Amino acid sequence: MSKNCRFAVAVHVCAVLAMNEGKPATSDEIARSVNTNPVVVRRILSSLAKAGLVRSWRGSTGGSVLAREPADISLRALFRAVDDSEGPALHNQPPNPDCPVGAHIVPVLGSIIGRAEAARESALAGVSLADVLGQIRSRAAAAAA
Amino acid sequence: MSKNCRFAVAVHVCAVLAMNEGKPATSDEIARSVNTNPVVVRRILSSLAKAGLVRSWRGSTGGSVLAREPADISLRALFRAVDDSEGPALHNQPPNPDCPVGAHIVPVLGSIIGRAEAARESALAGVSLADVLGQIRSRAAAAAA
DNA sequence: AGGTCATGTAACCAGATTCGTTACACTGGA
DNA sequence: TCCAGTGTAACGAATCTGGTTACATGACCT
Questions:
Q1: Distance from C-alpha of A72 to C-alpha of A48, rounded to nearest angstrom
Q2: A92 CB less than 7 Å from any atom of strand D
Q3: Residue A95 and residue B12: Cβ atoms within 8 Å?
Q4: Class of the CATH-defined domain B6-144
Q5: Would you write out chain B's pLDDT as a tens digit for each of its 145 residues?
Q6: Cβ–Cβ of A135/B108 closer than 8 Å?
Q7: Backbone phi, then psi, for A59, in 5-degree steps?
Q8: Does domain A6-87+128-144 bear CATH number 3.30.1360.60?
Q9: Cβ pair B91, B106 in contact under 8 A
């Protein structure tokens, strides 16, 4: 249990919801596909709901569905919904202000890291959930042949 | 002590070495600028040395210097030297192969995440240690005025 | 030769974060 | 009313983080 796999789970969850085409899926069904605990799925769903990406209902006919079309959900939106601060961090102790480097490196590095994170998110912005579904479907078709 | 700040420390360390212009700097001097323990600095220096970015000497006149010109050291090289696997991870449990999503999502997501990481590293590749030094120097000059 | 200083690394610690699990309150429908 | 499902809190084990101590190794200097 080392690294953060919430993004992977979020994409997986949404892919399952998209496959369901409007029929509510329970956290238990989704958890079986992801191979994890239903509570883990519900935690992800809760984050996704706060971001307006899914809708859930309680009760015996409850479950979750996508709140938008798969083509209108970018992986960046999923990423932001579940991973609130990825990537390399800055100093956790402020550096020595008496050294010219220590006095000025933090804002410099901050902007560089910010641009790098933006580049990563742009790459994710170019991929939609519909794209992921398409790739999954074509792989499934290839495997069936 | 939450997130990984080795990259920030690595850039800071190299900036200090570059400021020293060939004169060996001891881990103790560098640690004072970074505001951390000398052993932490030596750990970073050890990774950087394995990547061929710095050279160190023992003994009473020992210390470390850059192995290349600052303009020839990209932040991507520093990043790769100290952060061997950043970013969002895939499933840590393999998903259910009986579900069409679970059966095919891993390679699909893997290639998407790979492209996103490549985009981030490309952004870092466009910045050299010399660029960082230039920004630090101009900020220092502005602060002195 | 001996002393001193600095590197290199192992070992250990506390704090934080991860996900999995249990537990339980709440809710909606049959 | 019962039941199936969500929502969330709480806890635990595994892992990773940087800080610290300790010590062997090596290089210079007198």
A1: 14
A2: yes
A3: yes
A4: mainly alpha
A5: 668 899 999 999 999 999 999 999 999 999 999 999 999 999 999 999 999 999 999 999 999 999 999 999 999 999 999 997 776 678 778 899 999 999 999 999 999 999 999 999 999 999 999 999 999 999 999 988 8
A6: yes
A7: 90, 175
A8: no
A9: yes
